[in-house]
Amino acid sequence: MHEVDMTRCLLLSLNEWKGQHRPQEPEVRVVHLQVGTFTCVEPEALVFTFGAAVQGTWLAGSELCIETVPLRARCLRCESIYAPDQENSYRSPCCDHPMEEIVSGRELRIRSIDYQLHDETPHEAPQATALTAAPTPALSSAP
Amino acid sequence: MHMPLTDTLGLNLLAANQHQAEHNREHFDTWRLLCLNVMSSPGAGKTSLLERTITALAPQLEMAVLEGDMTTHLDAQRLEAVGVPVVPITTGRACHLDASMVSGGLKLLQQRLDPASLDLLWVENVGNLVCPAEFEVGEHLKVALLSVTEGDDKPLKYPVMFREADCVLITKIDLLPYLPVQVELFVEHVQQVNPRAQVFLLSASSGEGLGAWHQWLLEQVAALRTASEPASEPTTEPTTQAINDIPFPALVTR
Fold first, then answer.
1. Which of A38, A56, A94, B141 would suit a FRET pair with B163, their CA atoms being 20 to 30 Å apart?
2. ipTM
């Protein structure tokens, strides 16, 4: 369940981003991620942990939107782009060349954030550290 | 009403871990200390290999180990017995080491010795072929082990790990006569996902194949030293003949 740690990293980045808007208070609607299929990330698990982690924080009510990026490689023999058959072989179907250059599919990226700005807020909103502060039993189980 | 806004970031999702990993690597570079992140599934033979390799290289290299384990200190005790400083990092329920855990381990190591006096730092990761592939700890090189008892399909089932590895060790080759496997397929599947990986076949039990692996390690240590000496001679060509350059029949000489 390393998506918990990934969510923790994501929240750290979002807290940092929020700090750049001071003294204004951004209200986040959607966080857009790009996640490649050649990563160890299960998008549904990431959405689940994010939803649990932001409860009661300044990110409560925001949504995680994940764009899946397919694995594409370039055959270095004939320069053509191919989608490796991730079940059976990563060799290029054109020249039977090993997967040397990956064009896409390794993305683990915060693409953009949709939000609104509120002017000065009277109080400091709690930081989104719910995961580290109090892991729920459902979240902290080993994979 | 407030205007809806969008900020485009294009930021690495794991930026927080990445920053810490880069920080760790800066320390390693300052100390001219080569850091290797050793990864595999549980039971592929990481600790057994480190016992053999550390013993063999001890006359030439000063080494230490950061030992990741979910709950026990068993592996740390085994490696302490070989005579190197070992800092156990118990990860609790986490299934991988991350850069901040390694940073914490480094601080503990510094209480015992000056890291600049070391040549090679081993980070033995938690046994797992999934998560450790995505979490850099600041290492210079990633080493992945794959034992012949696990089956030749593992590089295809866990391709990210074998893609990320700079060096892949096919281990336990002394068992090949007893297994219905073809060692060529292990290598072929690794090379499908990562044709640039250095691949070595070896057995920590029989000692077969350890020589080439140890030679490669010595070259990596030397290369880091050369790279961090600005006024030194240009780097020499590596002399190790990796498995990639050798025809198959020559590999399995039993």
1. A94
2. 0.82
